[in-house]
């Protein structure tokens, strides 16, 4: 009998990029078997999609209620053990809530929820269910990001004193300048996306990345957001100042109207002894900067890297690894947790990371709305 973890997926059908990413990632270490789910709000489309990707259709359901009812009727060893939530933001909370109430392990796209209140409810339910809950801040799975984290933790750059993170995209340009298009895009609809577009979509990646690699917590934020048009109620660009302590400061620069940019996510951490820099579009290179020394470039797969980095490296040095591999490392960590195997706490983002991400989104928007003032992030 297969020992693979039985996986269900909600959303991610059709030509969804995030759907492909999760499906491929789940197959990387031979830990999961995709057995069904709800790929689309229309049952016929879900069934057609299942046929297209080559899985059986007897466990394709019309909605989550039907999924839980049918799966609960199966012998325990045949039931779905973990469900991935890949739907628009407003569905994350009700779906995760119902799954937790029925004892499922969950892998959820970010942001965790659209409000901090909802996130706190899920936190309470998780404490009761004692299941595994991961939030897919995908970029934390890159081997050289994990190397960056371990180097900072081990004192390689000394005390952190400056953090600068940029996440620039230009994808919303064809939409934002057309009144009809911007009125009919779910990303710009607060009822479906939450209170923020840019900060909620990519700014939260930057926030989580900073805390992941630096080991520091952001205490306060001051945000200046841009909406571009008066009839657009969702931010599509912004600059956010960060305070970690009295003497450690930083900045997040995030935009979806950076014309010509694709996925320019750059993380720079500067310490008293050295600096480290990583670029998502060239993820195999981690740059080490030291005063009076030539620039050093660290690459994955070499013995000089940390155990955490090497564990997430699938190929010999010189063979590029990318975002599919990064998400695959997160799925691998979740599999270890579900199987109650030993795993590193940095192998996958948890609900705590998801809650802090939602907290950050709310405080950044509040800072802007209150006149660009400093706002504390709740503990």
Describe the structure.
The chain has 379 residues and is an alpha/beta fold. It has 2 domains: 5-138, NAD(P)-binding Rossmann-like Domain (Rossmann fold), CATH 3.40.50.720; 144-315 and 351-369, Dihydrodipicolinate Reductase, domain 2. The chain is built from 13 helices and 14 strands. The strands form 2 sheets. It has a 9-stranded mixed sheet with strand order 13-12-11-10-6-9-8-7-14. The protein has a 5-stranded parallel sheet with strand order 2-1-3-4-5, sandwiched between helices. α4 (92-101) packs parallel to α5 (116-129) and α5 (116-129) packs antiparallel against α13 (351-369). The longest helix has 19 residues, at 351-369. Residues 145-276 form the GFO/IDH/MocA-like oxidoreductase domain. One of its GO terms (molecular function) is nucleotide binding. InterPro entries: Gfo/Idh/MocA-like_OxRdtase_N, Gfo/Idh/MocA_oxidoreduct, GFO_IDH_MocA-like_dom, NAD(P)-bd_dom_sf. It holds the Pfam family GFO_IDH_MocA_C3.
Strand line-up in the sheet with most strands: 13-12-11-10-6-9-8-7-14
Terminal Cα separation, in Å? Answer: 46 Å
Gyration radius, to the nearest Å? 21 Å
User: How confident is the prediction overall: mean pLDDT?
Assistant: 96
Share of helix among residues? 25-40%
Class based on secondary structure composition and strand pairing: alpha/beta
User: Strand-residue fraction?
Assistant: 15-25%
Spans of at least 5 consecutive residues with low confidence:
none
CATH architecture of the largest domain: 2-Layer Sandwich
**Helix segment tally:** 13
Shape: globular
Structural domain count: 2
CATH topology of the largest domain: Dihydrodipicolinate Reductase, domain 2
What is the string of helix and strand elements?
EHEHHEHEHEHEHHHHEEEEEEEHHHE
Secondary structure: number of strands: 14
Query: What is the H level of CATH, i.e. the homologous superfamily of the largest domain?
Result: Dihydrodipicolinate Reductase, domain 2
Q: Give a short account of the largest sheet.
A: 9 strands, mixed
Question: Quick one: CATH class of the largest domain?
Answer: Alpha Beta
């Amino acid at each position: 009998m297969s020992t693979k973890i039985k996986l269900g997926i909600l959303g991610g059908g059709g030509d969804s990029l995030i759907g492909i990413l999760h499906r491929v990632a789940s197959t990387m270490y031979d830990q999961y078997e995709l057995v069904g789910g709800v790929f689309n709000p229309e049952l016929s489309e879900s069934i057609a999609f299942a046929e297209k990707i080559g899985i059986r259709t007897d466990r394709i359901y019309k909605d989550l209620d039907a999924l839980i009812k049918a799966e609960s009727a199966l012998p325990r060893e045949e039931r779905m053990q973990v469900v991935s939530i890949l739907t628009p933001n407003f569905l994350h909370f009700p779906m995760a809530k119902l799954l937790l109430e029925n004892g499922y392990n969950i892998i959820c796209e970010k942001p965790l929820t659209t409000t901090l209140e909802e996130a706190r409810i899920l936190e309470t339910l998780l404490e009761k269910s004692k299941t595994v809950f991961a939030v897919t801040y995908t970029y934390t799975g890159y081997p050289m990001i994990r190397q960056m984290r371990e180097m900072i933790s081990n004192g390689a750059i000394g005390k952190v004193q400056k953090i600068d993170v940029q996440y620039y995209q230009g994808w919303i340009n064809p939409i934002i300048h057309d009144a009809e298009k911007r009125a009919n895009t779910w990303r710009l609809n607060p009822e479906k996306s939450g209170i923020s577009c840019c900060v909620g979509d990519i700014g939260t990646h930057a926030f989580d990345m900073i805390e992941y690699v630096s080991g520091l917590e952001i205490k306060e934020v001051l945000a200046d957001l841009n909406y571009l048009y008066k009839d657009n109620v969702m931010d599509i660009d912004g600059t956010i100042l960060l305070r970690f302590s009295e003497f450690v400061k930083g900045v997040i620069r995030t935009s979806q109207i950076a014309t010509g940019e694709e996925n320019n996510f750059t993380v720079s951490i500067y310490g008293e002894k050295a600096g480290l820099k990583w670029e998502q579009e060239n993820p195999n290179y981690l740059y080490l900067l030291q005063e009076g020394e030539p620039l050093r470039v660290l690459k994955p797969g070499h013995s000089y890297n940390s155990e955490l980095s090497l564990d997430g490296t699938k190929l010999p040095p010189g063979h590029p690894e990318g975002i599919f591999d990064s998400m695959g490392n997160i799925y691998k960590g979740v599999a270890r947790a579900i199987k109650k195997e030993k795993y590193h706490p940095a192998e996958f983002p948890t609900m705590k990371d998801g809650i802090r991400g939602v907290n950050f989104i709310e405080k950044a928007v509040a800072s802007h709305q209150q006149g660009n003032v400093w706002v504390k992030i709740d503990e």
